[in-house]
UniProtKB/TrEMBL annotation:
The chain crosses the membrane at residues 32-54, 61-85, 97-118, 156-181, 201-225. The keyword Membrane applies. It comes from Candidatus Filomicrobium marinum. Keywords: Membrane, Transmembrane, Transmembrane helix. This is Putative anion ABC transporter permease protein HVO_1887. Its main location: membrane. The lineage of its organism: Bacteria, Pseudomonadati, Pseudomonadota, Alphaproteobacteria, Hyphomicrobiales. GO terms for cellular component: plasma membrane. It is found in: Cell membrane. It is a multi-pass membrane protein.
Amino acid sequence: MQDFAEAFRLAFTLVLSGDPDLLEIIGLSLRVSLSAMLISCAFGLAIGATVAVLRFPGRGAVIVLMNSLMGLPPVVVGLVVYLMLSNAGPLGFLQLLYTPTAMIIAQSVLITPIIAALSRQVLEDLYSEYAEQFRSLCVPTHTAIGALLWDARYSLLTVALAGFGRAVAEVGAVIIVGGNIAHLTRVMTTAIALETSKGDLALAMALGMVLLTIAILVNASVMALRSTAARHAYA
């Protein structure tokens, strides 16, 4: 118990003192996860909006697939990206394996289905309210999609934050393609796993506290955005 209390005290000291190694790991984690979120939003929102508005043969199967991919096992994603980026893979010539870029790719692959599926549901519910009006005014599909994306912007921001929260907490995929290399690809989740196995509980707990704080801030932001969306809906 005394050792645990000492580790907790050291963890607080590291956080409050702004330890350089701690800040480096946190900074890389945020850069990787925010980049992955932006890439996933670019693809996921486009896919979700297209499936929400268009009606085509096999649409039901596409929706089932999108919802199923929300539960992609992170280690499987990491393995697939590893095989694609390895020297023997089709993208091996890019030499991206064990770099932050590889980690961004893995996180993007992991959270794009989440953003696509959630945004599809949000936009489809909204489209059902406006479909008749769009048809009566002969609104082009791309214009209708743009209008839906803007009208649902607060709800879609919560979707993006959900994707970010999933990305920043990821460990399985990023450790496979990133390798957890000090000062290059070490992020919060992989550092926590490493430092715990080494018995360095102070750094692991400090990173854990930061990660927990980020999770709380993300959830608080989601709740605030939902409240804002609800107020605009009833305005």
